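Retry 2 of 3 after timeout on previous attempt. Resubmitting C-alpha cells to design endpoint.
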C-alpha cells in the first residue's frame, strides 16, 4: 500500500510537542537558556520546563549547573551513534534515486568508492538507444566521467593518485585535467561529462556526504548529450543536487552541500 492510500496512524501528541525542544537543541550551537529554548520551540517556559525535567531523567537532555542552560545529553549521543550504525546507503538512496529517475525518465545511479575506483552500487534503469550496458558494479574512470570527477574532487589525493596516473598512461593528455576537474567540481557542487567515455551521451553527478562530512558516494544521471542541461541554473542540475542533499541528510550530514 502506498503512502497516499495508507490510513493515518494514531500518535501521541504530547511526544510530538515535547520533541520540538529536542529539535531546537539539535540545531543549537551550544546550550540554551530556558527562555530562549522555549521561545524557539514555540512553547511557554513552564510547559517546556516540565518536558525538560522528563528528558533529563532519560538522559536526553542535561542542564549545566553553572548556567542552568540546557543541552543534549549522553543518551541523545548514544541514539545518534546507534542510528548511524543502522543507516545503509543503498536503502536511503533508493527513494531520491527513484524520484530523479521518474522525473526525467533517465537512468540514475548511486556509486561508491572501491579498490578499482567508483562503482555503481544501485541503479534505476531506463531504456536508452545505447550500444552499451551499465550494470551494478560498473567502475567509472576518474578523468572522463561525471561520477569519477566527483570522487576525484572530494577524496584525498592519496586515494586517487594511482588511478589518475594509470588513466594518464593510457592517454597522457588527460593528466592535465585532474586539477581543473578538482577545482571546478568543488566550486560548482556538481560534475558534468561531455561524452568522453560514451560518445553522444553526457552525465551529471553530485556528491553525497556522510555525518563526518566525508564523501560517501555520488548520484549520477545519464542521457543523450543534446538533452542534458549542464548549466548551473538548469532544473536537471538542481534536481540531482537536491537528490544528493537528501541522501546526505539521511546519512547525518549537517554541512552545506553548496560549498
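Retry 2 succeeded. Sequence:
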Amino acid at each position: 500500500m502506498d503512502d497516499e492510500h495508507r490510513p493515518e496512524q494514531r500518535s501521541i501528541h504530547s511526544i510530538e510537542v515535547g520533541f520540538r525542544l529536542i529539535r531546537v537543541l539539535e540545531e543549537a550551537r551550544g546550550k540554551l537558556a530556558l527562555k530562549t529554548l522555549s521561545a524557539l520551540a514555540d512553547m511557554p517556559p513552564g510547559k517546556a520546563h516540565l518536558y525538560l525535567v522528563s528528558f533529563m531523567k532519560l538522559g536526553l537532555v542535561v542542564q549545566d549547573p553553572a548556567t542552568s542552560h540546557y543541552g543534549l545529553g549522553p543518551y541523545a549521543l548514544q541514539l545518534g551513534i546507534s542510528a548511524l550504525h543502522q543507516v545503509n546507503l543503498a536503502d536511503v538512496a533508493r527513494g531520491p534515486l527513484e524520484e530523479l529517475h521518474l522525473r526525467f525518465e533517465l537512468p540514475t545511479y548511486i556509486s561508491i568508492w572501491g579498490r578499482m575506483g567508483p562503482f555503481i552500487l544501485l541503479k534505476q534503469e531506463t531504456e536508452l538507444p545505447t550500444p552499451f550496458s551499465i550494470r551494478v558494479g560498473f567502475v567509472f574512470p576518474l578523468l572522463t566521467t561525471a561520477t569519477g570527477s566527483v570522487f576525484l574532487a572530494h577524496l584525498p589525493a592519496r586515494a586517487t593518485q594511482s588511478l589518475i596516473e594509470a588513466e594518464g598512461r593510457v592517454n597522457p593528455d588527460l593528466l592535465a585535467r585532474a586539477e581543473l576537474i578538482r577545482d571546478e567540481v568543488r566550486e560548482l557542487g556538481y560534475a558534468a561529462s561531455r561524452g568522453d567515455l560514451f560518445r553522444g551521451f553526457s552525465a551529471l553527478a553530485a556528491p553525497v556526504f556522510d555525518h563526518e562530512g566525508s564523501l560517501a558516494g555520488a548520484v549520477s544521471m545519464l542521457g543523450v548529450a543534446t538533452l542534458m542541461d549542464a548549466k548551473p541554473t538548469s532544473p536537471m542540475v538542481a534536481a540531482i543536487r537536491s537528490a544528493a542533499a537528501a541522501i546526505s541528510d539521511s546519512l547525518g550530514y549537517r554541512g552545506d552541500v553548496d560549498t
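Attempt log closed. The two ends are 39 Å apart (CA to CA).
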